Amino acid sequence: MKKSNYWIAFSSIEQIDSTFVQRLYNYFGDIEAAYKASARDLEQIEGLNIKKAKKFIELRSKINLEKTVDEVVKRNVKYLTFEDEKYPQMLKQINNPPVVLYYKGDLDICNLNRTLAVVGSRRASSNARKDLAHIISKLGGTDICVVSGLASGIDTTAHEAALDNNLKTIGVIASGFDYTYPAANKRLYEKIQDGNGAVISEYYPTFEPLKFRFPQRNRIVSGLSSGTLVAEASLKSGALITANLTLEQGRELMCIPGLISNPNTQGIYKLLKNGAAIVTCADDILNTLGWEVQTNKQLVLEVSDLPEDEEKIFKAIEIEPKGVDELLAQTGIKLDNLLTYLTTMELKGIIEQAGTDRYKRVH
Fold first, then answer.
1. Helical ranges in the chain per DSSP H
2. Could you count the other beta carbons within 10 Å of the beta carbon of residue 2?
3. 8 A C-beta contact, residue 120 and residue 154
4. Taking the model in full, what pTM does it have?
5. Cis peptide before 182 (omega within 30 of 0)
6. DSSP structure string for 112-139
7. How many CB atoms lie within 10 A of CB 109?
8. What is the dihedral of CA 199, 205, 206, 211, to 10 degrees?
9. Residue 328 contacts by C-beta under 8 Å, 6 or more apart in sequence?
C-alpha cells in the first residue's frame, strides 16, 4: 500500500482536521503507523483530543483505502501529500499545514518562489477593482504568480488581471472539487486550470463549501505566498483574517489605500496604522518583497511588430489556448496561411503548442 493512500484516507474523514493528523504523524514519524494506531497508542499522545481519537478509530474501520484514492483519481484530481517532494515549501513552514493538496491544472508552471497573495472584499468598489487590475497589469510579463481565493469581488479581479497579463495564478478553494463556488466563477476555474496555473484545495472532493472552511482556506492563501496584498477590507472581513495570518506566518503585509469614506477601507487603514506597507504601484510590491524581476522585453518587442494576420492570431489566444478550427473561425484566415503563420510564430518563440492541435502564448 502506498504511503499516499494513508494521507488521502485521513483527509477523507470530515470529523477530523489537519491539526489532528499532523499531531499523529509527528508522534509516530510515519503516516502508515499513525493511521493504523490502536486506541491505546492514541491515548499516549499528550494533548490529543480523546473524543476525536475515538471518532477516528470508529470511522477508520469503514474506509476502503484503495476505493478512497480511486474516487479522487476518477475525478481527474491530482494531489500532493505532505511528504511529497513537490509539496510547496513555504506552505510546509506554516503552523497547521494541509496534509494533502488536491489540485487541477499545473502547479509545475507556477513559480512558487514568487507568489503574491491578493485578498479583499467580496463587495469591492469599482475603484478598488480598477486600481488592483492596474497594479497587477504592471507585473505582466514576469514570473510572479498571483494567489487568491476564487471568491467574488477582489479575488475574481486578481485572478482575471493575472490571466489578462500573462501571469500564472493559483486559486485556493474552500470545498472539494465536486463543488464550484461561487457558481458564477465556473469559467474562471476552467481558464486557470487550462494552462494558466492551478486550482487547489485541502478538502477531499466530496466536501461541501461550508462556512467554517473559508477562514481555514485563508491560511493556505497566505501560506503559499511571500506576501499578501489587501485591496479592500472592512473591519470584520475575511481579508483581515488573512492579513493576521500573514503576520503570524512571518510574511510581508501590504495594502492598497482607498477612499476614507468607504466602509470597506476601514480595515485597510487599521492595517496601515499598524505597520502594513502601502502600495500605490507595482514597484511598491517589488520593493517590499525584495524582488528584482524582468519582463520579457523580447516578446513585447516582437509582438508589437507582428504582421496583421499574426496579430489576429496572437489576440485570439490571449486568454486561453485555441485549436486550429477555433482560430479559423475567429480570425477568418485561410487554413494554409494559418498553418504557415502558426509555424512562423512558433519559430519566433511567441507561441507554443498546448497539447494536440492547440496553441497558446509563451509566458
1. 3-11, 18-28, 31-36, 39-43, 50-60, 65-73, 89-92, 126-137, 154-164, 186-193, 213-223, 238-248, 266-273, 282-289, 297-304, 308-316, 324-331, 335-348
2. 12
3. yes
4. 0.80
5. yes
6. TTSEEEEE--TT--HHHHHHHHHHHHTT
7. 14
8. -40
9. 335, 338
Cα 132 from Cα 127, distance rounded (Å)? 8
Q: What is the DSSP letter of 355?
A: S
CA dihedral sign, ordered 231, 237, 243, 245: negative
pLDDT tens for each residue of the chain, 363 residues long: 799 999 999 999 999 999 999 999 999 999 999 999 999 999 999 889 889 999 999 999 999 999 999 999 999 999 999 999 999 999 999 999 999 999 999 999 999 999 999 999 999 999 999 999 999 999 998 999 999 999 999 999 999 999 999 999 999 999 999 999 999 999 999 999 999 999 999 999 999 999 999 999 999 999 999 999 999 998 888 899 999 999 999 999 999 998 888 888 999 999 999 999 999 999 999 999 999 876 554 444 455 578 889 989 998 998 888 999 999 999 999 999 999 999 888 877 788 888 777 898 875
Among candidate residues 114, 165, 107, 106, the one with its CA nearest the CA of residue 143: 114
* Amino acid at position 117, single letter: A
Compute the distance between CA of residue 228 and CA of residue 224 in angstroms, rounded to an integer: 10
Question: Distance between CA 284 and CA 131 in Å, rounded?
Answer: 14
- Output phi, psi for 102, to 5 deg: -90, 140
| Measured distance CA(73)–CA(304) in Å, rounded | 43
Q: Which domains does the chain have, with CATH numbers?
A: 1-67 (1.10.150), 104-289 (3.40.50.450), 297-361 (1.10.10.10)
Report residue 202 as a C-alpha cell: 485541502
Alpha helices in 165-264 (DSSP H): 186-193, 213-223, 238-248
